[in-house]
Amino acid sequence: xxxxxxxxxxxAVLACLALVLILISEVKGSLxxxxxYTTVGGSQKIGKLxxxxxxxxxxxxxxxxxTVKNTGxxxxxxxxxxxxxxxxxxxxxxxxxxxxxxxxxxYYYVLPLEPNEVSAALTIEINWDSSIVADDFEVIVVEEFVxxxxxxxxxxxxxxxxxxxxxxxxxxxxxxxxGQ
Length: 180
Prior knowledge:
By secondary structure, the chain is of the alpha+beta class. It folds into two domains: 1-37; 53-158, Sandwich (Immunoglobulin-like). It is built from two helices and nine strands; from the N terminus they run H-E-E-E-E-E-E-E-E-E-H. It has helices spanning 2-35, 174-178; strands spanning 53-60, 63-70, 76-83, 88-93, 97-99, 107-109, 122-128, 140-150, 156-158. Strands 5-6-3-8-9 form a five-stranded antiparallel beta sheet, with no helix packed on it. The longest helix has 34 residues, at 2-35. The mean pLDDT is 80.
């Protein structure tokens, strides 16, 4: 009876050891999953997709007038936003400029700017309580642009949600990345 008990105990210990070994081997594989990495490099230039813009600002009293010139090689859409302290109120106005439905603080030029074309002026009126703020202050103007995107009918629009990545992918991996 004692011998049978020892054999059962030995079998139980061996079963536990086997289970522990199996678990350890599985954990090692799953840890490898979390520590494996790879890098890619290389790039390919695709036609003339370069764009750039220049901003011109003129100050006259409490008004700042902004125009944007497309200095790139392709049509683009532009948007402008001004930043000032919380004691200032900014009022935007200008032909073909509008705030979008998101009311995100940006003012969008509704027409595409062709290469070397200049936008209509956007006037930013700056109001403040002169008893609180001195006359010496700055209003920062930020401008962004996106290349014009095209609808099926050939009309253009500015896709402000598009993501342009600097991720470089070798030629032989393009199909893998395109499928993601």
